[in-house]
Amino acid sequence: MIVNNGGTENLEITMSSINTRSHKAQKVIERMGKKLNRQIVGSLVACVHCGMCTNACHYVLANPDDPTYAPAYKADQIRKFFKKHYDWTGRVLPWWVKAKSLYTDEDLEELKDTVFGKCTNCRRCSINCPMGVDYATFNRMARGLLVSVGVMPEGVAVVSKDQWEIGNQMGVLKEDYVDTLEWLAEELQEEWGDPNATIPIDRTNADVVYSINPREVKYDPRTISDAALIFYAAGENWTMPSECWDMTNFGLFSGDDDLGGAVARRLYEKVEELSGKTLVISECGHGYRSTRCEGPNWGKLDVKFPMESSVITMLRYIREGRIKVDKSKNTTPVTFHDSCNNARSCGLFEEPRELLNLVCSDFREMYPNRTENYCCTGGGGAMSMSEYTPRRLKSAKIKADQLKATGAEIVVTSCHNCVDGLTDLIRHYKLGMQVTQLVNLVANALVIEKKVMVPVEEITADLAGYRILVADDEPDFVTFVATILEDNGAAVMRAYDGDEAIKMARHEKPDLMTLDITMPGKSGIEVFEMLKKDDDLKSIPVCVITGKPELRKLIYDRPTTPDGYMDKPITEENLLINIRKILKVHHHQETVESKKQI
Amino acid sequence: MSPLLHFSEHTLQEAALAFMALAYITRLTWLFHFKAGSDRQAPTGAADTTPRRGILYSWFNIAMPWAMESTRTKMFMYIQFIIFHLGVTAAIGLSFIIPYAPRLLDSRVAAVILMAIIGAALLVGLMRIIRRISDKYMRAISSPDDYFSLLLLTVWFAFAFLSVPNSTAWGEWHLLTYFFLTAFFLVYVPFSKISHYLYYPFTRYYLGKTLGHRGVYPMKHARQSGE
Questions:
Q1: Is A38–B224 a contact, with Cβ atoms under 8 angstroms apart?
Q2: For position A474, what pLDDT does the model report?
Q3: In chain B, what is the straight-line distance between the N-terminal and C-terminal CA atoms, in Å?
Q4: Structural domains of chain B, count
Q5: Does A54 sit within 8 Å of B221, measured CB to CB?
Q6: CATH code at position B145
Q7: pLDDT confidence bin for A456, thresholds 50/70/90
Q8: CA A265 to chain CA mean position, Å
Q9: Is A128–B70 a contact, with Cβ atoms under 8 angstroms apart?
Q10: pLDDT given at position A4
Q11: Which of A231, A554, B56, B210 is most buried, most CB within 10 Å of its CB?
Q12: Is the reported ipTM for this assembly greater than 0.85?
């Protein structure tokens, strides 16, 4: 049987091999022919197994006893079936060059474990290979092949689905997105007493169309308001699209060029529809690479308008005198983490340093840096693949040591993925550092001379005086909830696993606790049970917030039920309503109890 | 010179070379069957990082041990690499000098230099064999071809070393072995990893072009420490 695969190669597959090969394995082999190009084939045939790439990989450095993490070993897991089917050396003498086909779905699962679970596509080995073998590129190809037959980590499937169907990778609905922007605009106007301090939506002929990462809407809206403040201070004619605003692209991580092309095209078409002059991409490594560099290739189109990172935009504003900054406003020691996609795939590493030196008084370099920096370990979509979390955190030791050696208290990065990866490893290795982005530091350092002070009604921080413990294993989510509660006056304590939650509850005796169900160590259910059995703690009201509503039964089947319950994702409004309600009811109950006692 | 030695130095080498050339032409034709990926994006990075500069930097990257962390931090490995490849060049050169310009070896200095280079390469070959066998990372990534190619090259160095004086005073066995091994190599190389030098210009060209266009190559300022 002859299978023609895109005119690149005729793939002979005997009837006997078809009989012993799974359908998915067969498809992977066939589709490989369509994905191969000269660069990839060159990288697949040129490796001499010299081992020089080995120590370039953070997985290897953190797992010195396990050679299966070596880049050349991982590359060989892809190379072996390439050789078997597309290279004569593997066809003639397969055992001689370790060529081997894929036969079963188990083979595909093993390959999945390597290409998704043991590599973040950071490209550090590529720039350390004497032969110029670009492993990261064909690792992405292998990911794409597996995704095409439905073999991928669950998180990759979920996020890809959201980006295909809803248009952004966190499934943010249009109304929630627009509501958030309007709320942020109102706050900005209130703060500056100027109706022009706003977030224009769908303004046509704007000089800047600003695109963001959905994580900003969902977990980190402060980055949007800080960017808005900078645009306002610079007097920029700017806008944000109401739709097709997501500059991230899971196609980069999943290896799915069709998804990559579709997502990029949506954003490009939106900018053209609005007649925007420049597309500015907020701080996100993979978003910048996908939108600025790979999108035109995946989408097979030539983009007519210029695109730039917001880092370059902010730096330009300062250079042009459009905004003024005072570095004495940021005095805490900071270091900078280079995103792999920015530094090793887009050459964006000098501008962030120049900007940092303009807005911070104590910037400390991290070593190695720039194109030789180590991955945050959350790249390549790793943050969405929870099955590999222990592996990821173990490999993060390298980054943790790098961070610690700087002596800085804040690590700055121009990538949302890195923010998550770094936050997680900082917590895991107890480094006590904060993670922030350049937009936050620039906004904080802004000197706005013509600030219009209009007397505004004092906003009552109605949670002032309350102490709330937030327990959840997702650092992003904890930050999101904590920010909202703190903005409303509450003092917030954070716990990232069940044991820590119990310990903090005992020590701090909070007025309320939000509790996730699935957490490392003790689950939320166990924590809830322990709280209710403890005389000192049982009066603490608990609001369960979970992403797994199917587990709700486990907690509601108990004699004592929580005081509140919310399904993820949550909105700010819902969270505040629930928290206020629980505290109010609790206060009322306490009053009744004390009256009874009197 | 026996007819067998004459055959091994001339006819056999020429036939093996012709075979290798044919195999390489076939191999390159195969490689060029695959379309080159295109880059539609506008350039990123500093203005002085262009595809052209990226390609040049990438090609000569191997001659700049300071440019890559992998070579910078393993200088001993890098020196081994240089000696080994100089040895290969010298041993190949010898296979042309003996049949076509034997008088060059009348110069004692030239002969000593050749022997020193090939002898050093032989030592490096032995060290590489030990490394490939004793290092668990190297074992994990090695195929039979990797072991065989290295072993064969090391043995070839040994016979090249003995053949430099081009003397038959102790018989022709060392010269015969050297030339038969050379011929075997010429036939075997296109099927083995030793043919990596054929791909080097292409892999490095494309990596350099991409990273030059994207402002990464030539790499600057990456440092391991603040010193």
A1: no
A2: 85
A3: 62
A4: 1
A5: no
A6: 1.20.950.20
A7: very low
A8: 21
A9: yes
A10: 43
A11: A231
A12: yes
